[in-house]
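Researcher: I'd like a candidate sequence for this fold, 282 residues long. If you have to choose between options at a position, lean toward the conservative one.
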């Protein structure tokens, strides 16, 4: 797979704004790491700026954990994202180029209502992951209410099962067909994670060739989401950003296990190995 020209070499007369601003919305008590992994992966993938929109009562945690990433404290409800913070998030999203929602947000009712408002009313290119998908499980038609078609969702089989109301075993037996049908119906790009991840927009369909069982550990999906966001914000379309992001994510894992082993691989290792992966494309 080739790296698009704009990702190979930067023009001398540029600045951080030239490479896009990603807003990552998520986090809740006990689940702050997801936002951090996603944001750091997006930066390592070339995004110019990242802002983490997080529950205000947890903001001090993010301020300690993140160095290059800015934070946007949002009015919350006992540590969970809340509709009370939606207007502030939406106003900020108007200045961003890509929005990511769901990582570490939890299945709390307050967070779910916030996520559904983001899906319905924020029209920037949107990546929905983790608890963002769980919020949509009973409300998939929210995807049809969007004016913009620039949406990527990144479910694993269990999350896709909740979205489609089909069993995991049925999904595994008909991954390509079910993924294409869902993507076409809801006019989005779907990344169905797993061994040989499927990427489809309902018309074109690809099966990824990189990756290994070392990826079966907490947080690797957050890193994948961040990589895709970092590519999408640099003017790739949703299908190309998803395809390339999945490939790079798997290639980082294949490179990392040579030193870390499959058993010892952790999600943050993938971010550490991203520069080496990008060098391979040169």
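Model: Candidate sequence:
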């Amino acid at each position: 797979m080739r790296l698009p020209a704009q990702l190979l070499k930067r023009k001398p007369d540029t600045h951080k704004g030239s490479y896009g601003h990603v807003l990552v919305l998520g986090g809740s008590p006990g689940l702050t790491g997801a936002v951090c992994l996603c944001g750091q992966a997006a930066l390592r993938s070339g995004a110019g700026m990242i802002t983490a929109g997080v529950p205000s009562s947890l903001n001090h945690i993010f301020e300690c954990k993140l160095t290059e990433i800015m934070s946007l404290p949002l009015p919350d409800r006992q540590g969970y994202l809340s509709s009370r913070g939606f207007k502030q998030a939406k106003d900020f999203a108007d200045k961003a180029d890509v929005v990511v929602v769901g990582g570490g947000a939890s299945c709390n009712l307050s967070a779910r209502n916030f996520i559904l408002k983001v899906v319905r009313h924020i029209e920037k290119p949107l990546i929905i992951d983790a608890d963002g998908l769980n919020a949509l499980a009973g409300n998939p038609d929210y995807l049809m209410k969007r004016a913009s078609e620039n949406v990527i969702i990144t479910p694993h089989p269990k999350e896709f099962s909740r979205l489609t109301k089909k069993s995991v075993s049925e999904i595994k037996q008909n991954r390509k067909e079910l993924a294409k049908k869902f993507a076409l119906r809801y006019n989005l790009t779907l990344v169905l994670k797993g061994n040989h991840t499927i990427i489809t927009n309902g018309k074109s369909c690809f099966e990824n060739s990189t990756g290994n069982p070392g990826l079966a550990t907490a947080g690797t999906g957050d890193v994948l989401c961040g990589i895709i966001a970092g590519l999408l914000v640099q003017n790739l379309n949703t299908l190309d950003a998803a395809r390339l992001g999945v490939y790079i994510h798997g290639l980082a894992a294949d490179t990392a296990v040579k030193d870390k082993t499959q058993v010892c691989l952790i999600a943050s290792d993938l971010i550490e190995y991203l520069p080496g992966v990008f060098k391979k494309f040169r």
